[in-house]
């Protein structure tokens, strides 16, 4: 099992994100993954740096830790050819330490280029075509592609790493999990559902299984719950809502009835080691083997100290 750390690019500046990646390596984490957003989720978030720039800077500042996007939507705001190029370059700069996490996206980030927001079935078709285009460009040489939704004309990615990056496909339901099994090298989820693993395996997937784990370290349980509410209350709405709302103000309105107690149910809040291990165990017991720990608490330095002195040793014992 590998333990990673979630870099919350909506809550911290690009320079802080890079420093957190460095600190995560020092604390003993195996990997970091960074969200790829144009907009943050809620008004309390004040940032949304460009993911591939932050990863390039982190690659230059670290030596061992693996890097990943968590996750990039490879169509609408981007074209998959640009994602193929960006991922290949990042992998080269990181000396092979990069994983491309991709998914079907959210309106929050993709509507900004004025191309609309398709229904989920169409987004899954676009995700399939994007994966095919990325794989095609990573095979070397010039290529064209004429899909139902996406086209590629006489394109080549000149700088390709060896080996190529792993592609982890995000899944919020069985349909996306099957796409991950058919066309990805790994699967990425935000909740430890064993039905997603079943769908992934049945579709032929046999790679790593990434899951985000919700923690909120703080000196007290209440402080952790309040911080998780401030930073992550959008997560209570579920993916059907998260994928559809266009701006932070909409998420603010949609979460008016969410309280810190709702977050306490999902997050390990406070300083108690056993509670943190209990929440982490939910993902490992479900079968996930690459766990990206979130810290939605108010003190990032305190969390890294907690991981280095208590949580990390307990997980590795």
Automatic annotation (TrEMBL):
Residue ranges of domain Luciferase-like in the record: 12-290
Alphabetized InterPro entries for the sequence: F420-G6PD/mer, F420_G6P_DH-rel, Luciferase-like_dom, Luciferase-like_sf
Keyword Oxidoreductase recorded: yes
Pfam family, any one: Bac_luciferase
Keywords: Oxidoreductase
Oxidoreductase as UniProt keyword: yes
Broad enzyme group: oxidoreductase
Enzyme Commission number(s): 1.-.-.-
One of the record's GO molecular function terms: oxidoreductase activity
NCBIfam families: F420_G6P_family
Name of the protein in its database record: TIGR03557 family F420-dependent LLM class oxidoreductase
Organism whose genome encodes this protein: Kribbella deserti
């Amino acid at each position: 099992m590998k333990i990673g750390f979630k870099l919350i690019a909506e809550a911290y500046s690009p320079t802080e994100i890079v420093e957190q990646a460095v600190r995560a390596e020092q604390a003993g984490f195996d990997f970091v993954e960074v969200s790829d957003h144009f907009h943050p989720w809620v008004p309390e978030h004040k940032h949304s740096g460009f993911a591939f720039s932050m990863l390039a800077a982190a690659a230059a500042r670290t030596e061992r830790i693996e890097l990943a996007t968590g996750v990039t939507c490879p169509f609408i705001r981007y074209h998959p050819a640009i994602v193929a190029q960006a991922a290949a370059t990042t992998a080269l700069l990181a000396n092979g330490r990069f994983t491309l996490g991709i998914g079907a996206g959210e309106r929050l980030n993709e509507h900004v280029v004025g191309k609309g927001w398709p229904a989920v079935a169409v987004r899954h078709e676009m995700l399939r075509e994007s994966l095919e285009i990325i794989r095609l460009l990573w095979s070397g040489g010039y290529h064209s592609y004429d899909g139902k939704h996406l086209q590629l004309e006489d394109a080549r990615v000149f700088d390709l790493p060896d080996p190529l990056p792993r592609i982890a496909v995000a899944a919020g339901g069985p349909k996306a999990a099957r796409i991950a099994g058919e066309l990805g090298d790994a699967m990425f989820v935000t909740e430890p559902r064993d039905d997603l693993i079943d769908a992934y395996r049945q579709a032929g997937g046999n790679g790593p299984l990434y899951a985000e784990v919700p923690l909120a370290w703080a000196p007290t349980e209440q402080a952790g719950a309040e911080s998780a509410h401030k930073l992550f209350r959008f997560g209570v709405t579920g993916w059907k809502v998260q994928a559809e709302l266009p701006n932070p103000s909409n998420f603010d309105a949609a979460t008016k009835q969410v309280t810190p107690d709702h977050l306490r149910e999902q997050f390990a809040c406070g300083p108690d080691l056993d509670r943190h291990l209990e929440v982490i165990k939910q993902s490992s017991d479900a079968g996930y083997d690459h766990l990206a720990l979130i810290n939605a608490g108010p003190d990032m330095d305190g969390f890294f100290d907690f991981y280095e002195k208590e949580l990390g040793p307990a997980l590795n014992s």
